């Protein structure tokens, strides 16, 4: 599937996560965990993993997340908690969950002035994202990606080589094997 290439590529190719930056990744399925791998390889100093299933936090931390938040365990919106934790918001947010609520939280937890939000997930029945123009006029940006910005014919061989050279550990993403 495209889970690894999409999440990893979203962090590396689309968001262009920088060394020392702060990141928030919403949704810890295969795409979100792959985004965490990308943020870590890019050199992010802090990676906040967000999911409504706390059982996913152990794997997220093993792959590079520094903090984990379950919005259902919080007494205020997760974007407010992230903004407080980071003294103003993260440099990069990646929404791998889909759905208007997660997309809005991802955008709103980015820092004013240069925060970047990359939308990756899409809920099938979702009605879309409604945003305040102020969020964009204050310097935040939104972008999206399909397949993580890779060109399949050129990029897949490079990703395979990087895996074989142990640049990243895809084995951690395998949950079970079918015959």
List the helices and strands and how they pair.
Blueprint: H1 3-15, E1 22-26, H2 30-42, E2 46-50, H3 57-63, E3 67-69, H4 78-85, E4 92-95, H5 100-108, E5 116-119, H6 133-137, E6 141-144, H7 152-164
Parallel strand pairs: 1-2, 1-4, 2-3, 4-5, 5-6
Helix pairs in contact: 1-2, 4-5
Tally of structural domains: 1
Under CATH, the topology is which?
Rossmann fold
Shape: globular
Care to count the β-strands? Answer: 6
Oligomer: single chain
The separation of the N and C termini measures 17 Å
Which strand order do you get reading across the main beta sheet? 3-2-1-4-5-6
- Major pleated sheet: 6 strands, parallel
Helix content: 25-40%
Structural class: alpha/beta
Strand content: 5-15%
CATH class: Alpha Beta
The overall pLDDT, averaged over residues, is 92
**Which regions have little confidence, pLDDT < 50, spanning 5+ residues?**
none
**Name given to the CATH homologous superfamily:** NAD(P)-binding Rossmann-like Domain
Helix count, per DSSP?
7
Organism: Rhinolophus macrotis
GO biological process, one term: formaldehyde catabolic process
Keywords: Cytoplasm, Metal-binding, NAD, Oxidoreductase, Zinc
GO molecular function: S-(hydroxymethyl)glutathione dehydrogenase [NAD(P)+] activity; zinc ion binding
For this entry, give a set of tags.
179 residues; 38% helix; alpha/beta; Rossmann fold; globular; six-stranded parallel sheet
